[in-house]
Design brief:
alpha/beta, Purple Acid Phosphatase, chain A, domain 2, five-stranded mixed β-sheet, 8 helices, 36% helix
């Protein structure tokens, strides 16, 4: 079984909310650890993440310990960064054994070709962001930000900026942009399954070209997805077990 989860936005809420969100995710993954063959974190794991050469943001060590445990026993974990958490260096790879991917990913698992991407910059409404994205991730401005601001100040500024972007409600233009991108990928490539996050709307669409699955938003709805011999499925953790979400689109 392959698991997909995104948009945890760890660090966005109050300490109690974040502890509950982390505990729920750890419990959910523990429920699948006997059958999990791979885990994909499809972006925005953190609401803000700036790694420094000798420092990392504190918190969420229980989740990170689970990742290290899984990779230690041979379960591949892949982290596709999102628009909130792109400033990684090497901590996740060297200390936790997690592969970090900074763009889209196409790979074959078994006999199925997968396309994975967080989804930021895909929608037509993201024109300004698409222009800014290379600069936000270019080594020079990233180095200047890390070098000119003390770590605490840099993280505080990133948190302020993230929290002043609004509540990140589902936007119809983003949802539609991701669907159009998914269908284009399914039509133009060998991928038979497209998995993204970013829109915060969990949904699954089965088209003649293939299947598009959006994991939704863990921190709001506790949704995630899996792929096994039965095919791709959208699931929701209710605190004790995962239940199948069988609607074509989940509001």
């Amino acid at each position: 079984m392959i698991l997909f989860v995104s948009d945890m936005h760890f660090g966005r809420g109050s300490p109690a909310e974040e502890r509950a969100s982390e505990a729920a995710l750890v419990a959910c993954l523990r429920a699948y650890e006997a059958s999990a063959e791979r885990l994909y974190l499809v972006g925005d794991v953190f609401d803000q993440y700036i790694e420094y050469r000798a420092l990392i943001p504190k918190g969420f060590v229980r989740f990170q310990a689970l990742l290290a445990e899984w990779t230690g026993r041979g379960v591949p974990v892949t982290y596709l960064v999102g628009n909130h958490d792109p400033w990684h260096i090497d901590y996740f790879e060297q200390e936790l054994g997690v592969r970090v991917v900074f763009d889209e990913l196409v790979e074959t698992v078994g006999e199925r070709a997968l396309y994975l991407r967080h989804g930021d910059g895909v929608s037509k409404k993201d024109r300004a962001y698409r222009w800014m994205k290379p600069w936000l991730r270019h080594p020079l401005p990233v180095w200047l930000y890390r070098s000119l601001l003390p770590a605490d100040a840099g993280l505080r500024l990133a948190r302020w900026f993230s929290r002043h972007q609004g509540d990140q409600d589902v936007e119809a233009a983003t949802v539609e942009g991701l669907r159009e991108h998914a269908r284009r990928i399914l039509s133009d490539t060998e991928a038979g399954l497209v998995v993204m996050g970013h829109s915060h709307l969990p949904e699954i669409h089965h088209w003649p070209e293939g299947t598009y699955l959006n994991t939704g938003c863990w921190y709001k709805a506790r949704t995630f997805a899996c792929l096994d011999e039965a095919g791709p499925r959208l699931l929701q953790w209710n605190g004790e077990e995962a239940v199948i979400v069988d609607q074509e689109t989940v509001a």
